[in-house]
From TrEMBL, chain A:
<keyword id="KW-0333">Golgi apparatus</keyword>
<dbReference type="Pfam" id="PF24080">
    <property type="entry name" value="AP3B1_C_2"/>
</dbReference>
<dbReference type="GO" id="GO:0006886">
    <property type="term" value="P:intracellular protein transport"/>
</dbReference>
<dbReference type="Pfam" id="PF01602">
    <property type="entry name" value="Adaptin_N"/>
</dbReference>
<feature type="region of interest" description="Disordered">
    <location>
        <begin position="643"/>
        <end position="730"/>
    </location>
</feature>
<feature type="domain" description="AP-3 complex subunit beta C-terminal">
    <location>
        <begin position="791"/>
        <end position="932"/>
    </location>
</feature>
<dbReference type="GO" id="GO:0030665">
    <property type="term" value="C:clathrin-coated vesicle membrane"/>
</dbReference>
<feature type="region of interest" description="Disordered">
    <location>
        <begin position="759"/>
        <end position="793"/>
    </location>
</feature>
<dbReference type="GO" id="GO:0005794">
    <property type="term" value="C:Golgi apparatus"/>
</dbReference>
Automatic annotation (TrEMBL), chain B:
<dbReference type="InterPro" id="IPR028565">
    <property type="entry name" value="MHD"/>
</dbReference>
<dbReference type="GO" id="GO:0005905">
    <property type="term" value="C:clathrin-coated pit"/>
</dbReference>
<feature type="domain" description="MHD">
    <location>
        <begin position="180"/>
        <end position="424"/>
    </location>
</feature>
<dbReference type="InterPro" id="IPR018240">
    <property type="entry name" value="Clathrin_mu_CS"/>
</dbReference>
<dbReference type="GO" id="GO:0006897">
    <property type="term" value="P:endocytosis"/>
</dbReference>
<keyword id="KW-0813">Transport</keyword>
<dbReference type="Pfam" id="PF00928">
    <property type="entry name" value="Adap_comp_sub"/>
</dbReference>
<keyword id="KW-0168">Coated pit</keyword>
<dbReference type="InterPro" id="IPR050431">
    <property type="entry name" value="Adaptor_comp_med_subunit"/>
</dbReference>
Amino acid sequence: MASGNLGLTYGGQEKTPSLSGETEFAAEAGAPGGLFHADYKRHDDLKQMLDSSKDSLKLEAMKRIIGMIAKGRDASDLFPAVVKNVVSKNIEVKKLVYVYLVRYAEEQQDLALLSISTFQRALKDPNQLIRASALRVLSSIRVPVIVPIMMLAIRDSVSDMSPYVRKTAAHAIPKLYDLDPEQKDELVMVIERLLSDQTTLVVGSAVMAFEQVCPERTDLIHKNFRKLCAVLVDIEEWGQVIIIGMLTRYARTQFTDPNINGTNHSEKDKPFYEESEEDDEKGKQTESLVLDPDHRLLLRNTKPLLQSRNSSVVMGVAQLYHHLAPREDVAIVTRALIRLLRSHREVQTVVLNSIASMSVNRKDMFEPFLKNFFVRSTDATQIKLLKLEILTNLANESNITFILREFQTYISSQDRDLVAATIQAIGRCAAGIKEVTDTCLSGLIALLSNSDELVVAESVVVIKKLLQTHQGSHGDIVGQMARLVNRITVPQARAAILWLVGEHCEKKRVSKMAPDVLRFMARTFANEQDVVKLQILNLAAKLCLSNPKQTKVLCQYVFSLAKYDQNYDIRDRTRFLRHLVFPSTEQALLAKYAKKIFLASKPAPVIESVFKDRDEFQLGSLSHYLNSRVVGYMDLPNFPAVAPDSNVRNVESPRPVIPVTSLRGNSASAPSKGKKKETFYSESSSEDDDVKDESGSSDSKSDSSSEMDSDSAESDSDESSSEEDPDDSVNISQQNIVRLSPSLSPSPPAQRLSRTLVIESSSESEYSSNSSDSDSNDSDKVVKSSRMPPPKSNLDLLLDLDVSDSAPVMASVSGIPLGTLASTPITDSSIQPASAAYTSTRPTELVSSISSGCGLQVLYRYTRSINLYSPSMVTIELTLVNTGNEELTEVKITNKNMPVGISMHEFTTLASLPVGATRLVTVGIDFGDSTQNVSCDLVASGRPIKINFRPSVGELIRPVTCTEGVFINEQGKLKGMNEHSFSITNTLELEDMKNISTKIFRTTNMASINSSDPNTLRFAGQTLSSKSLVLVTILVGTNPKLSVSCEKMIIGSMLLAELKEALKN
Amino acid sequence: MIHSLFVINHSGDVFMEKHWRSIIPRTVMDYFFEAQRQVVKDNKGHEDVPCVIATPHHYLISIYRNGLYFVAVCMSEVPPLFVIEFLHTVVDILEKYFTECNESNIKEHYVVVYELLDEVLDNGYPLATEPNILQELIKPPNIIGNLINTVTGKSNVSSVLPSGQLSNVPWRRADVKYTNNEAYFDIIEEVDAIIDKTGSTVFAEIAGKIECCVRLSGTPDLTLSFINPRLMDDVSFHPCVRLKRWENERILSFVPPDGSFCLMTYHVGCQSAVAIPIYIRHNFFLPKENSQSQTGKIEITVGPRQTMGRVVENLQLSIPMPKFILNCTVTLNQGRATFDPVTKILLWEVGKIDPTKLPNMRGQIHIQSGAVILQSTPSVNVQFTLTQIAISGLKVHRLDMFGENYKPFKGVKYLTKAGNFQIRM
């Protein structure tokens, strides 16, 4: 009756007493096989319940069916009855039906199709949970016929308003891919879109889909790399693991080896610890200089994850550091790994396995934690052995006594496996560390008299190996061991002794005993194991050669015994030995050398860690654990010799910014790589969008709705979905992910996108048409046009309109707590770029006419306008004046010697610079938010002139504006280390306000923010490269104070220093 | 990723299976049973079943908890720790739901378990594993809930998405309301040590954790500060803790999940001196190999060492004897001793240590007749507790709450336990 109760208690439903008897059957594990009849009847009964109109009965029936599935019993014959209930209103019944469907749909494909329309309807449900679960089930029923429907559903859902549904869509992608790999191309596009999603909830799943479907498409990651790094901490744990794994592979293709100078390190540092230390020192000086900023970003942002409670995240970071970090940085993962050793047994096993592999080459990392690897009697055997392995790997002269003492206690352990492994480990230590070889050897010999046979046998094998590596006469030891032959029964040990005797048969003490040993062995030959038999043959042959007088007959006897052995290896060996040792006359040629062949000195075996060759696999992977290639394992690529262009990761600034730059350009600007890829998607739609655009799309709302009417055949689409429309499009425009053209996605959501699409692609098409008629020679014109802010075009107005339009709606949406990326700078459209408040008109001299040597004078100034080539570049205008008396030809910049992370766009070569002429050219430099010197050669008439650009921090910033509220809010986020302030000593009067502003504007390129408080001045900007906010506040009045907040601490502090200086004057 | 999950009980029956992708026949478990048999043959414990088993087409990754094996079947490359950690998370969730995750509980609540399993994993990838969210999606079974369901006709499956899933604090459920607002923090430290024959400490370390039980209404923002946070060598946090605050100020600042959870774990490493609260004087010898005698001797005395003025309580010594020992007869001046002839463990439940009268045990060990005597020495596993003290000296400075207007009741408790405390004889 227990299960009857179950129904009552947990079903929470009353049921008729007549049913409870059968319920007992259903719930009982493994009903006896003899009850097939009852089984059948019971199913009938379930069908009845499912057909009834009462939800409670249906639920009860479903629960019992799920019970059957859970126990692995067949419930497929109920399929027709169950599938009808997919329309049930009761959420729990529905859920259980879903579970059932996923389990059996594959087997009953035709019937399963009946349920599809329900899911399609549910996909449009206003409740996000229902939409998501419908998508989950739809994608989980593995019926190939519905592939197109799935594709449609996924495409719909990736632009769903709810991040939860988008996450589910990401999960659906690999399912569809498994079902029909043909869909890959289209899925890749969907993935690309999901990757650029701004919610942390989605990103992890998007990367998971990426890993499953198209792990080779690293180009999709470029643009998202920095974002992924930034949000990594906020993503849920499982997503972190997957992203870290992916980034490890990505980084291996994009960055150069940080340890390039210490590549032969691993081979070298094996024997001596000190040596490796030295190498490290050398390494440090050269390596730390050349790390790509993105590489460093990755390392820095993954580091906090070492404190995760999830062991697989910690392991993920550890392997990332192991594979990517400069040698000296890897050590920071040690402590976290050690911490995992207190976790569950299974975790310990895997972690120890990885540590064992790491400790082969990274002794110094784990040496301080030696004691953590001491074996406890309560450990599982596997863990004990791994710990032993690690201890052995870590052994060196300084800690060997310590380790040996520890080993000694293990030998008296009750765990036989541990004892055997310990003896092996002692052998390895002895072979590796010369100082202790003798001690170990005598210790092992002492073990020969141990009462435990296993200990003795293991010691024999180890001593054999040691004697081989250790030069010198070991007659005594061999003699002592030869006496053990009678006692030891373990075949390996017997074989080892025989081999030793044979090898040392000419030594003083052994030579007398050897024939006796052989005689003894000949007697037991028939009963020996194969290994032993082979060694007896060897011994016989060797003795026969060295001491034929005593042993020749014995040897022949052994050979004839072996001739009829069951094992063909032994028969073969006998035949071969016989001809060498007892040659018939014509074969004597080789036999002459028999002694040399048999008694040659053999190379010593190398005793090393079994974990040595695991380096080929990625640490922490299943393949690494099993030391064999697992299905689906992807090799870690080797570091490229030269890093690919790092600019591909430069993300263009948020949406409102790009169009402006490209519009302002009005002429040539070389498109960057990332740019090109984008146009690819919007190209197909660009034409008709252009048209719409011209037809006054300022009223874009009506435009989009009209398009929806015309395009959607089923535009009777649910009320609910159209209600959501405005929200949806805002959501999307805010996230700037509109890349799909309508032709690719004829589904309703895509139409919803159309409004944003118009804007987006129109600006891009404009851009591409511009670039097509570009003329490379008119760089002068570029300069001029970029110097003064151009009149706002229609498009500009449209864009502005869009921004201001979306902002208020945004506010209404923000009621939904989106897990937006707090740490990505400027995702908020309320922060917009502004134009420079002040531009210096007086150029400064860069190269004087005297120092150039050819009469060329170079002046420069910061134009503070947005660079055309890339928005992250600082635009510098150079004035070239030929003050000499001969014409200069071929003026150009060469030999750009850029530090990593800094790139430069030079001006086009000037064919000639006549005497007295002045030319204006611009260069763009992406300083990567650093104030490093950028030097290059300016060549005029073939003569190089060295020039240096050293930016002031103020120039690395671009002005942005926002409301005061946003300003204060953002400033609140940048507290602590990110805030720099100092109290101004010389009192500033209120009338000085304007003066102060001017000073600020002169020093730095920021925009002033309207302040409600008359005593506070606020300025905002963002760094050019990383788009981090820079916020400056000046308090005047009784307690004057200047504070700078910036995510980049260095920028913040340097700016503070500069501003301080500026205000003093 | 994870294709299927099989749950196996002690007697080797698969009593629950769940497939997230295509169905994998149960026969794949034969490889697992094979490994299990091998372990039994080798005279080893359940812990020695390898946690990763490679079969020709599948990879079986298993954990062993509460007498049950949870075996995940994978078909392609996946970080083994990922799967192991996930399985442990599942068991943790089940424990939260049914207080204990054992066979009868799983069988009794198979529908809830199945619904949970369906929710935590989608197509082999974890979907939602945060207990607070799951508890909103699928209500834990309890009597009152069932009564309500029966009356109102509602189910224990939620029809709306828990708002936590979408918020910035996914670990906390929304609309928490309590009449008594309380927050309890238990600082539990475990001393891990290996002490050798002579009584000197080979290795000692403290592993601490802070277990919280927070029942506060609304969305409280808590900060917890310590008097001496520098003691902690290595820390790991619940995702709710703000890492920046910790790095800069050594303050734990967090919006807690609702209910009980582990806020952080920390280590006090072997570099700093660790107080060892007890010492043991022991005498253990087996008869010589060739002697006719079939009895050995054992004598143990336990005493307090650095207890920081507290009484050592719940002291318990367990000594795994060599396999050839038949029985032990001991006399005690305190507590109770039992010898299990199957596992060969001599267990002495001592209780409190009275410094004036030290607990003492002496007795004889009887050897199985005819058995080969191997000179091996057992090690003593020690359990004890010291209440109201964290042996590392860690102390909470203060706990503040922001964001809500009520005054919560706050409590901090300290406890020191023996972790992996071993004395070699």
